[in-house]
C-alpha cells in the first residue's frame, strides 16, 4: 500500500438489513418468552396444557423461524451487494488457529454451538415428554376432546396414560401417531373434525401390544361375581338386585379349563369376522379356527353375504377391543348412570320417583351443556315443589343434592356440543343398550353343517339370585324380565332399550301411553 493510498474500510456486516433485523427481533422475543415461561413452569405445581404447548412447541418454532429469517436476510443482502458493489461483500473468514484472535473466536463459536445443542436437546425432550402427557391429549384441544377426556377421567383406566393405549412403546408407533396427529391438528385448526369423534379408531395398535401388557390373557380363568342393582321407575324406586357369575374362563390349559368368554382370546383360537358398518355392530360372517385347526364359517341367515362379497370384504381378526371397545371412554346411559348413583348413595332412593325423573330429564335433547344444567335444575325443582310440597319444604337439601348429582351425570356422559353420548358410542360389553354379545350370539349365525352360535344366557353367565324371584335352586335360575313381555319376550334387549330413540309401544295406546308398564303388565310372582 502506498503512502497516498487510503486504507480500505471493512465492509459493513451482511446482518445490517431490515429483514435480518426483523428476524433477530422475533428470535430474541421468542427466546426471552421461552426462558420466562420455563421459570413459570418450574415455579408452579399445576400442569397447564397451554403452557407446555407455548414453551416447548410454539415458541421454539417461532425462535427457529426468526433465525431462518435472519439467514434469509443476510443471503438476500449478499446478493444485492454482489449485483451493485461487490467490494462491499466481506470475504469468507479464514480459520487459522495460530492466530490468537481467530482461535479465541473459534472456541467461542464451539461453546455457543454446544450450548445451543444442549438447549435444543433439552427442549426436544421436554416437547416429546409433553406431547406424551394426558394433559396434551385431553386438554390442549379442549372443546374437541372434552367428551373423551371427561369419560376417561371417570373410567377404570384413569391412571393409565393415554399414550399407553393409543401409542404404546417403540419409535415406530410414536412416529405413526404423530403423523396422524398432524392431520388431526389440521382438522381442529380448520374446523374439519367430525361431531361426534368417530370410533373405532382406525389403525389402532393391536391389543396384544397394548392391553395385554397389563392384562395377561393366559392367566384369565374361572368365574367372577357381579352384582347388578336396577331401580324401578315407580314411586319407591324399587330395587331389583341380581347376582351373576360371569363365566370369564380362559385360554390357557395350564391355568384352567379353556372355556368361557375368554375362549375368544387369540391364544390358540383364531376368530375373523366381516362387519358391514363403520362401528362393527353388524357382523354377517364369522370364521373360527379352533385349537385343533378345525375351521368353521358362520353366516347370518337374516343378512347373508354372497361368496363374492366375502372374498372382497375386509376381514378383521378379533382381539380384546372387539368386546371391550370402550375400555377407557365409557358413556353410561341415563338408566345405568342413575342406578349407579342410587347404589352409591349419591341419590337417595327414599325420594319418590327420583329414578324416573332423573332419567327423564337426562334423556331430553339439549343444544348446550348450560341449557341442560339449567333445565335439569328447573325440572326436578318444579316436580317436587308441585307434587311433594311437604318433602320440598322439609327436605330441600335432598332435592338440591338430587339436582347436583343429576347435573354431574349429564356433564360426565353427555356432550351436546360434540353430539356425543351413550347412543353415539355403543358399548359391546353386555347386550342391554346395544347389540354387544348378540352381534354374533343371536341364534341367527349358522354354519354349513347346521351348527348355530347360540344366544343361551348360561353361555356367558349364571344367575345366582334375583330379588324378584324365589328359588331353592339358585344355580338354575333363568333370567326373568321384570315386566311380562308376552309375545315380545324373544326380542333382543336393545329392541326396547334402544339408543337415539324413545321407546315406542308396538300397539297404539292412545291416552294411556303415559301409564307405567306394570299397570298393564303386572309382575309375575
Q: Summed up, what is this model?
A:
By secondary structure, this protein is an alpha+beta fold. Helices cover about 40% and strands about 10% of the residues. The chain has helices spanning about 20-45, 50-85, 100-130, 135-140, 140-155, 160-165, 170-190, 305-310, 335-345, 355-365, 370-385, 390-395, 395-415, 515-520, and strands at about 225-230, 240-245, 270-275, 285-290, 295-300, 315, 445, 460-465.
Radius of gyration: 33 Å
Based on DSSP secondary structure assignment, what is the total number of beta strands? 8
Uncertain stretches of 5 or more adjacent residues:
510-516
The main sheet comes to: 5 strands, antiparallel
* Average pLDDT metric: 82
Structural class: alpha+beta
User: In what range is the share of β-strand residues?
Assistant: 5-15%
Helix content: 40-55%
* End-to-end C-alpha gap: 122 Å
Query: Numbering strands along the chain, what is their spatial order in the largest sheet?
Result: 6-3-4-5-7
Number of helical elements: 14
* Outline type: extended
H/E topology pattern: HHHHHHHEEEEEHEHHHHHEEH
How does this structure look, described?
The longest helix has 36 residues, at 49-84. Residues 510-516 have low confidence and may be disordered. The strands form two sheets. This protein has a five-stranded antiparallel β-sheet with strand order 6-3-4-5-7, with no helix packed on it. Strands 1-2-8 form a three-stranded antiparallel β-sheet. Helix content is 40%, strand content 8%. Among the domains are: 134-193, no CATH class; 224-327 and 429-520, no CATH class; 334-413. Helix 1 packs antiparallel against helix 2 (49-84), helix 9 (334-344) runs antiparallel to helix 10 and helix 10 packs parallel to helix 13 (396-413). It contains 14 helices and eight strands. The protein has helices spanning 18-43, 49-84, 100-131, 134-139, 142-153, 162-166, 171-189, 307-312, 334-344, 354-363, 369-387, 389-394, 396-413, 517-520; strands at residues 224-231, 239-246, 270-274, 285-289, 295-300, 316-317, 445-447, 461-466. Strand 1 (224-231) and strand 2 (239-246) form a beta hairpin. By secondary structure, it is α+β, with helices and mostly antiparallel strands.
